[in-house]
Amino acid sequence: MSEHDDSTLDARIDEAFGPVIDDIAAGAVERERDRRLPVAEVAALRDAGLGALRVPTAFGGWGASLEQQFRLLVRLGEADSNLPQLLRGHVAFVETQRARPESDLRTEWLRRLGAGRTLVGNAQAERGDTTATSTRLDERDGRLLLNGRKFYSTGTIYADWIWVGARRGDEPVALAVPADAPGVTRIDDWGGFGQRLTGSGTTVFDDVEVDPRQVLPWSDNAESRPLSYTQGLYQLVLLSALSGIARAVVRDAVGFVRPRTRTFGVPGASSPRDDQLVQRVVGRLSSIASTVEAVTLSAVRGLDAADQAARRGSDGRRADGRDSGGRPADGRRADGRDSGGHDDPYQEALVTVFEAQQTVVPLVLEAASSLFEVGGASAVDADRSLDRHWRNARTLSSHNPAILRERAIGDYRLNGTPLRTGPLTAPAEVEPVAVEPVAVEPVAVEPVAVRTAGA
């Protein structure tokens, strides 16, 4: 829930971010063509206070609800789908701080975030044959030093702080380091054919000194709120970007058709906007956009409601969201659907998020492809960059493969098998799934290194 009257806060959010989002949309095609990172655009969002949106008002933030934040992310995704994704680490970090028990460090972080001048990036994943991390935090001469190399460091190239997964001895830890700390190098070497401006490349840590207060055992990091919440949050950011793409497809289809006076196969002047086939295509695109946004926001509300219920200690659960042993008598959800014998509201909410993924992904991909049915050869003009919608949607859809999630949903419904939500820094055994290989021609990207002060 938000801490303000929703309509009043909605108006404030629109006033603060509407013009910024309009500017971001105006330059999206040019940035895509030139592969120019949206550094100035991210700075404008930071200056408008985006990083403080979910921070409680007691710490200087906006006190917005989860749904209000995600509605804004959908709008941002319509302007440029790179932006919601590159903010994903920050969104999750703020939620982590909100959920932690009261402490001086929590207060320090919420005040820093509430001031609206700080964005946090994410550096967890590494390239390799397993999900184990090789990034190490070791003590040397009385100092804690971080060494390692991360990939898929989405948003880190734009960030002020970096949230890092590492190992200290045999223990997985989570820690925060300033992005401009000596020894930090951020490299824009992400070579995907879509979402090319998210900065999802390499981050190198070379003897980076770490403040011991900023280090948490991974178990402490996950203690205040189950990882199923964070995993759902991460997926919902991707779904909000996809929902934004669907809205952009409708916008661009309408913008393409309205001024045209020529229809393929019709001699002389004609009005494509009056063509019944074109109308049908645009009607389908508009219906898809409305559907995927509604499904995404419904899943957001479900995750938020689960969090509220768990933290209130309802339904036989403790106030911190951990199971107290209570079970529903018939093993069913409040809406009457079989829960597989589990009463964990976070698990149920995460299943709903995964179910939303199964709906959103194919519909947005369909829309991004069907967009070209409203025009002839001119629709594929590279200057229009309409292909970016499909490339970006396909890239977003390839995160957390939907085929694995579909199987997990079925296993949960049939057998009550909990969804897998292990630490990101620990190896995970995943049942192999046969997938027809698809050859994708690599995209050549010239790496750009961003070296920080003192590096």
Automatic annotation (TrEMBL):
The keyword Transcription regulation does not apply. Keywords: Flavoprotein, FMN, Monooxygenase, Nucleotide-binding, Oxidoreductase. Residues 306-345 are annotated as: Disordered. Pfam families: Acyl-CoA_dh_2, Acyl-CoA_dh_M. GO terms for biological process: L-leucine catabolic process. It is found in: Cytoplasm. Belongs to the DszC flavin monooxygenase family. This is Dibenzothiophene monooxygenase. The lineage of its organism: Bacteria, Bacillati, Actinomycetota, Actinomycetes, Micrococcales.
